[in-house]
């Protein structure tokens, strides 16, 4: 049953029709728990609230359904406006983005040009940009573009997914760059030809990734709500004399808030991924696919 629901939500997340309907009805039925709002100002207000109790953030203007060059350029402009808003407001937040929202599927050159514009603005503000990893079909091109950008920018990082077989090799290849990586388990539906189908295998690979990146001396963002993974990271860092300044924990807006606050109290750096924008549906569906508890939260809101 759980697998069936997960597959259903993942398929819905890729539906253009469902996305159009979602835009029409707005952030209802519980989506506002996971998405900070539809405007930059709403997202800045959310980040300010996080900052007040010691959490930092990374803002993401959601935009997975981009079908034209004009839409891609508009999405890039929104990223730049977000960086400007962060600087103007004084909140503590980085920027995260998906390169498909910048037109990667339309034109690689268009995407790279927009990435350079965004990174130039981030550098001007002394800020950092994280490239989100998407599905397997976009993995290699995302890594290729990241390597290209790192020749000119040191304020950019990328995400690596534990459920892919290729990940440890990718980490070896990125070692020479001193890459700032966000390590995640992975949220897309992938073939067993390219990804571990069993959760236990994903968890073991995730631990190996954390060990490798920390021991390599590179900045590590451990993005997980799994308390076993978080405890493993804390114990490994302590045992190996790794400073807390070399890593941070990252979690999603609206999920495990008490755990987030507890980690801050313990002195760890905690960064919250804060999505916003009108194109929120695909992101919302992945959150529902990940945890059945999220589905029951939404159903309760529907009948209030």
UniProtKB/TrEMBL annotation:
Using the record for this protein, list the coiled-coil segments as residue ranges, or answer none.
Answer: none
Q: Which Gene Ontology MF annotations are present?
A: nucleotide binding; proline dehydrogenase activity
Q: What is its EC number?
A: 1.5.5.2
Cofactor, free-text remark: Binds 1 FAD per subunit.
Q: Which residues bind FAD?
A: 133, 161, 185-187, 199, 224-225
Q: Which cofactor does it need?
A: FAD
What is the recorded name of this protein? proline dehydrogenase
Species, as recorded = Paenibacillus silvestris
């Amino acid at each position: 049953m759980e697998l069936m629901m997960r597959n259903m939500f993942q398929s819905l997340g890729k539906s253009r029709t469902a996305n159009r309907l979602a835009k029409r009805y707005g952030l209802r039925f519980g989506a506002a728990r996971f998405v900070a709002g539809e405007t930059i100002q709403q997202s800045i207000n959310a980040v300010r609230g996080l900052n007040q109790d010691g959490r930092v953030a990374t803002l993401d203007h959601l935009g997975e359904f981009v079908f034209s060059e004009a839409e891609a350029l508009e999405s890039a402009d929104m990223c730049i406006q977000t960086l400007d808003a962060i600087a103007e407001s004084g909140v503590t937040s980085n920027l995260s983005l998906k390169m498909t929202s910048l037109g990667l599927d339309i034109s690689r050159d268009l995407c790279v040009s927009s990435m350079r514009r965004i990174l130039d603005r981030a550098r001007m503000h002394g800020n950092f940009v994280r490239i989100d990893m998407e599905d397997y079909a976009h993995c290699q091109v995302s890594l290729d573009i990241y390597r290209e950008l790192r020749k000119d920018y040191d304020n950019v990082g990328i995400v690596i997914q534990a459920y892919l077989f290729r990940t440890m090799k990718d980490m070896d290849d990125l070692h020479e760059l001193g890459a700032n990586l966000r390590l995640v388990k992975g949220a897309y539906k992938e073939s067993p030809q390219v990804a571990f189908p069993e959760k236990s295998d994903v968890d073991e690979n995730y631990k190996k990734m954390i060990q490798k990146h920390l021991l390599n001396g590179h900045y590590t963002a451990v993005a997980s709500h799994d308390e076993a993974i978080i405890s493993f990271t804390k114990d490994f860092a302590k045992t190996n004399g790794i400073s807390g300044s070399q890593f941070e924990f990252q979690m999603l807006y609206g999920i495990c808030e008490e755990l987030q606050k507890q980690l801050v109290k313990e002195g760890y750096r905690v960064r919250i991924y804060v999505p916003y924008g009108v194109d929120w549906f695909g992101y919302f569906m992945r959150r529902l696919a990940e945890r059945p508890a999220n589905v029951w939260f939404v159903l309760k809101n529907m009948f209030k």
